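Lab manual, section 2.4: Encoding a predicted structure.

Procedure: take the sequence of the chain (324 residues), apply the prediction step described in section 2.3, and record the output as structure tokens. A sample record is shown.
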Amino acid sequence: MTSNNNDHIWRYADAYEYMERVRTGMPPAIICVACNGGIQGKESNGNLPEFADEIADSVSDAYQAGASMVHVHARDPEHITRPATTTDVWHDVNKKIRERCPDIIINNTTGGGPDMTMEERISCLDAQPEVASLNLTPDMSRFKIKARKAPLPDPRPEVLYDECLPFSYKQIKWFATEMQKRNIKPELETYHPGGAWVLNYLIDERLIDKPYWVQTVMGYQTSSWPTVDNVVHLLREVPEESLWLCSGIGPHQLPMTTLAAVLGGHLRVGLEDNVYFRRGEKAKSNAQLVERAARIINELNREVATPAQARDMLGLSKTPTQYA
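Recorded output:
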């Protein structure tokens, strides 16, 4: 499904179009809450949700604060530090989110977490998300994960995470094909300019539909450095008729998403990407991060997009997916 209203689409890096939009008004800004992630947990911030009911409650508060989309990582309920690998677990999480958030856009990850097969990463698609993330490049990183101590479930010592998720053209095409079969819109995640090659390949293969939902991931290891000039450079590589979502990792979340608000893009905030509210102060909730994003959007004379407005901009069904 494609949107019939193109007033919200333009070339973000075009100075003339930008100045005209400042004069006439920017479109509503979509806030996507990345609520938990697939690697760190309560050992990093006790407010990060892990179990299905915790996730749904946290998302509900963020929804009330202005989030119109949730990017979610389901966890294995038997081993809560590990990602979910079966559709039934994903379905339970999606159902509980929908019960609390009647029209939020549900966006499941296919990035998953460590030590997953590609079949396990794609298991979320049969849980009927409306959007799913699609990495456009290999994902390589190296960092320490804090020790997880009892009484937290699944305690473990400090872990050195040193992995590369080897996404290839073949695997990305497979994921995009499976999403297209299920009418799931890909969230096209690019970490550096090389992602544009793959994005254009998917367009040539007719596996993705306009408007393209493109996320620039800034400040992740082996991604582009989180600077203004790098963001603008990436935006020059984004194909026409794209909607741009920006995320920033750790301390870069606030400046990168603020830049997106200034330039007319859309914002991803949440405890997956950043467990702090400000330097030395951990975030109390996903809602706290969404509330700040909404304040910034409003101060810049933009509206926070409702779920209905977000669905229209993205070309999604007006009727939210229901879970039996």
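Check your result against the sample. The chain has one domain: 15-314.
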